[in-house]
Design goal:
mainly beta, Neuraminidase, 5-stranded antiparallel β-sheet, globular
Length: 445
């Protein structure tokens, strides 16, 4: 989902005992070198640890273990040219080196396992072992030259969906995440070719902007750099999908979770991330009066039930008419009209049209719960409109800030995630240059 700058650091290429970084003498051989560490442009140094890599080729099988000598920076061998596979066994980890200390970070292997590659005569052949670590992608580009490549995210951006009005069409706008005031967007997706009639929930995955379009009962996918009157790259749409007024979307792994009001009956539909066309969902969760916004955290699905004025929580594996893990009926002791929600570090953020602000409660809350914080009051600029009018809409969290889509003022208001009480936003994105018209969804990445 990020736009990357790529930095490749080749730490060591050992071809023989007598010389470094020269071609092997035997032209029937190719070179295999696995680099175990490297430094990115950010200054972060990463190491692959507790890794057992089995390499199978035309005449031999070799097993490498990084812990045979944890201090070394590379593993090397000359091999017969031909087709090879490298299998990374379970139990590996990625650590960040910080001076004399190290920190093991959550990591995901993104490349194929085993990785298939060909070693050519008298050459190094590059094959990628690619990991995702926190906010950075780490490539161990094999070739036996396994070089370490770190892909670092560029400046974060804010994606906003707008329902449109008599002066502006429905749109998806992209801003720098730090935008303020009457800022022109970086890009605006709008026009008849987009198929957008009422875009609502939005997220970004696999370098695509994923948008719920309630009036067309569709999920639209746009290239990350789409601009102008651009058609979607693909759509999930048609009677087999079961889509009916989809309003919220979240991605976990290789699955898309869609919440929808479906008029009188809310449902949550689950599709493969690669789904396209008139395809049936792989799972459907039923039993809700209505479901609007959706968030996934800690193995649980959180949805706002705007008809029954509560937040409902399901296990991530729920299917059919599943029982909720718990419900959050009321957060303030007064009227509660939940619209958007987000979860961060054990806290649940819920935008509330009746309050005209945002409640913050423990993500583990159940029943009638008093919020630990709430952002509300005249200084916030958010108007309390009651349950029948939607002013405050969906919310997004990013790097200690909460972004609130406010359709009553055609703005996105940004607050500190630890803000409490009648506080002014740290900044407001709004004005004619922004092209915001009834903003509904927000996502920052």
């Amino acid at each position: 989902m990020y736009m990357y700058r790529r930095v490749t650091i080749i730490l060591c290429m050992v071809w023989s005992a007598a010389a470094a970084c020269v071609a092997p003498v035997d032209a029937a051989l190719g070179s295999m070198t696995l680099n175990l560490a490297g430094q990115a442009a950010s200054g972060n140094v990463y190491r692959l640890r507790d890794a057992v890599i089995t390499v199978r080729g035309p005449t031999s099988t070799k097993v490498w273990n990084t812990e045979d000598d944890p201090d070394r920076s590379s593993l090397s061998a000359d091999v017969v040219a031909g087709s090879y596979s490298a299998t990374l066994q379970d139990g590996w980890r990625i650590e960040r080196v910080e001076g004399l200390s190290t920190t093991t970070l959550p990591a995901q292997l993104l490349s194929d396992n085993p990785a298939q590659f060909v070693v050519a005569f008298n050459q190094r052949t590059n094959v990628g072992l690619r990991f995702r670590v926190a906010d950075e992608d780490v490539d161990l580009t094999q070739g036996y030259d396994l070089t370490l490549v770190v892909q670092e995210p560029g400046p974060p951006v804010l994606v906003v969906t707008s329902d449109g009005d008599q002066h502006a069409p429905p749109s998806v706008t992209v801003f720098p995440a730090g935008a303020s005031g009457d800022a022109a967007p970086l890009r605006t997706i709008a026009g008849p070719a987009t198929t957008l009639l009422g875009p609502a929930g939005v997220t970004v995955a696999n370098e695509q902007i994923i948008v719920c379009d309630a009036p067309t009962n569709a999920i639209d996918f746009y290239p990350l750099l789409a601009d102008g009157n651009a058609p979607p790259a693909r759509r999930i749409v048609g009677p087999a999908t079961g889509l009916a007024s989809p309003t919220g979307v979240a991605v976990l792994g290789d699955q898309i979770y869609v919440s929808q009001s479906s008029l009188a009956h809310g449902t949550i539909l689950v599709f493969p991330l690669t789904a396209a066309g008139d395809v049936a969902p792989t799972r459907t969760i039923t039993g809700l009066d209505s479901s609007e916004a959706i968030a996934i955290d800690g193995g649980e699905i959180f949805v706002t039930n705007s008809l029954d004025n509560r937040v409902v929580v399901y296990p991530i594996t729920a299917s059919g008419n599943a029982a909720a893990t718990r419900t959050i009926v009321e957060l303030s002791g007064s009227s509660f009209c939940p619209r958007g929600l987000a979860v961060r570090r054990g806290e649940l953020f819920v935008s509330d049209s009746c309050l005209g602000g945002v409640h913050v409660s423990p993500a583990s809350a159940s029943g009638r719960v008093t919020p630990v914080r709430q952002i509300a009051g005249s200084a916030t600029g958010i108007t309390a409109t009651g349950g029948g009018v939607r002013a405050v809409q969906q919310v997004a969290l990013f790097r200690g800030a909460i972004y609130v889509a406010d359709s009553s003022s055609d703005t996105v208001r940004v607050f500190s995630a630890i803000a409490d009480g009648n506080v002014a936003p740290s900044r407001v994105i709004g004005g004619p240059s922004t092209h915001l018209a009834n903003p509904v969804g927000a996502f920052v990445f």
